[in-house]
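so i finally got all the pieces together for this one. its two components total, 848 residues if u count the protein bits. some of the lines might not be protein, just check the labels. i wanna see the whole assembly predicted at once instead of chain by chain like last time, that was a mess tbh
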Amino acid sequence: MTSGVPHLTTALNGPLLKLEAILLEKQTQVETWLRQQWLKTPAPFYASVDLRNAGFKLAPVDTNLFPAGFNNLNPSFIPLCIHAAQAAVERVCPTAKRVLIVAENHTRNLFYLESLETLRDIFQKAGMEARIGSLLEDIKEPVSIDLPSGKKITLEPLVRNGNRVAVGDFSPCLVLLNNDLSAGRPDILENLEQEVVPPLRAGWSTRKKSDHFTQYNDVAKEFAEQIGIDPWLVSPLTLQCGEVNFKEKSGIECLARNVNNLLTSIRAKYAEYDIDREPFVVVKADSGTYGMGIMTVKSAEEIENLNRKQRNKMSSAKEGLVVDNVLVQEGVYTFETLGDEKAVAEPVIYMMDRYVIGGFYRVHTGRGVNENLNAPGMHFEPLAFAQSCSTPEQNDLPDAEPNRFYAYGVIARLALLAAAREIA
Amino acid sequence: MTSGVPHLTTALNGPLLKLEAILLEKQTQVETWLRQQWLKTPAPFYASVDLRNAGFKLAPVDTNLFPAGFNNLNPSFIPLCIHAAQAAVERVCPTAKRVLIVAENHTRNLFYLESLETLRDIFQKAGMEARIGSLLEDIKEPVSIDLPSGKKITLEPLVRNGNRVAVGDFSPCLVLLNNDLSAGRPDILENLEQEVVPPLRAGWSTRKKSDHFTQYNDVAKEFAEQIGIDPWLVSPLTLQCGEVNFKEKSGIECLARNVNNLLTSIRAKYAEYDIDREPFVVVKADSGTYGMGIMTVKSAEEIENLNRKQRNKMSSAKEGLVVDNVLVQEGVYTFETLGDEKAVAEPVIYMMDRYVIGGFYRVHTGRGVNENLNAPGMHFEPLAFAQSCSTPEQNDLPDAEPNRFYAYGVIARLALLAAAREIA
């Protein structure tokens, strides 16, 4: 069976990553340590993690506990998803026969609907009846939508009956959220007797990126100690500013100061590792997703001199969430590129339970190596990973394809562990 | 990534299997029922199951709790094996970091050694240090052997220290038997404080095929009731004869009588389902493996008129095990063939824990549809399954490739469940 996926050859000719060699050499220790961690803190039901690979460092920049994009995974690895879904369900509700998926609210986004239908189908193939409930008020009866792939998806209105939610007469013991709750925790989902995964508190209405990265930094430190590396090689430096209001220009000074401090720290690290690049930082909303409220800066002056348009953009996170807490994070260069055009390619890794089930590259031709590819309106081409992230080859070079994918899977699982601790 | 595996097109043009349609239609019930069963009786650590697909019925004929042939699986699905190995280890010994594999004794069989090294590598990739211990007396120090695949395998002498076994100073908490103990339970493995899987009692020195098929018939009945089918569609009729000595010609009359009774029962079933084929039965040793002591007969007279050579052959099971109990089993035709030559192809399914991890066809050009392809000295060409057994496609025809593979996986798991109950 062919996957129809080209190998990312140019990307794989990037600078040899020492880290990959160490992860390969210490693979048994890495996996043993991770297994011990999962015994202490069970993995979230599912997640996707955006990574940046700068060659000299490999780090997560975003961990999504309500992943979309399942349609971008390599169809060859759907069996992995199916087995992982069975394991994930077994952990939270061993007797579950059915699952009700609560969808994200952007019904007109066909890419999202393709992902949703792929996710539903994974559960069907795992032997669970799966149906999709929508919170949208304008969905008052089941709606079937034809998808570009030729598949069809059916969305049904989510209704509450006592302490249970249902679509029609379908009210299973397991409710799977695929809605990140950016708009807040909806009443209809509060105090259910059903098992709700991930828990409501994992939604963006309560979750803070800064909490995640605080946990991540601890995880990275512990992990780095295990295998004898500098934790900086796997984690972005991060600072947090409270009470920033871009519209009213309050808190901007604190932000500029933190940007400056962080740039200084990155510069020191670059000097330590002889990296001849200009440091940059990413400023983003502490809550929320979809790349809104994100900006890349190379100096504190850029923050001080923001124009009205830029300030407005930073204020409008998804579904009107007001940006007040702001994360200032080390920007990690993306040095993986594809083809003659040197299209920037960023890996996204998918996990269910503690298993890495696959991933894809976001490939973008029109953007630089230090820009965010998940910005609003940004178009990317997904390029499914040609191989799984579970088959390191000791006899191959550290940066051979299976070993690079393995490294992705390891770092993504560190982010998964951070998320597990975050929502525990 | 291509798997380099041709699709078994001709085989898939066989008679439409009603059973496949039912398994597909009732997939959720099938999986739910299986999940419930694993909660009651945990799956064996690993197993392979030989199936026969007659078009009108699909049944297991042999369940191996110490599987070899891992090298015949599609490399694309090794990630499935790795995840399943992690799950299997987690169930028996969650803190295990290392595994000691106890090998079969035929060191000169390069096919077996390829399988053994593939198995060891699966554990390595799953993040466990894995080494191989041999019981052979002529292995007194570590021996490295170059394999046809270009890999190298290292066998080390298994030694006992107190209540533990080890190779060198490697004495992990988990000991995985890949030796079917046909020659008896070796003293060195008795009363270990280490976790030994599968348990010694699962070895052929104590295990009886008749026990397995007694359990299988119960499983098949319960399963058939769940999905509303005749259990005969998934199980071979089986009778047992005790105290048969082919060399001394004792017990032969009982055997002939049972052969006759079984042929009559099969004939009745063939009449019920309008099957225009000549029934046949397979006579085999109740213990043991490797296809020794197996014979195909179409009448009781064939049993009564066995010549000395045939009787001697039936007496010599693997490693001199004397045949005394004999299983008389309905022969299931193999109507899957490959290519213009109509080479007979028999599926073998591999499982770890409760997960189907893959399979292959034994393809043989020189034998008939009612002969045993796993006979001593028989050469077969392995043809790895092109797809996994976990991705049924509701929108495809019931006998489309993914659905046929799914059916194999279901019936193989019924045999796995029977084995689980057998060794519980």
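Confidence is low (pLDDT under 50) at residues 1-15 of chain B.
The CA atoms of residues 250 and 422 of chain B lie 29 Å apart.
anyway lmk what u think
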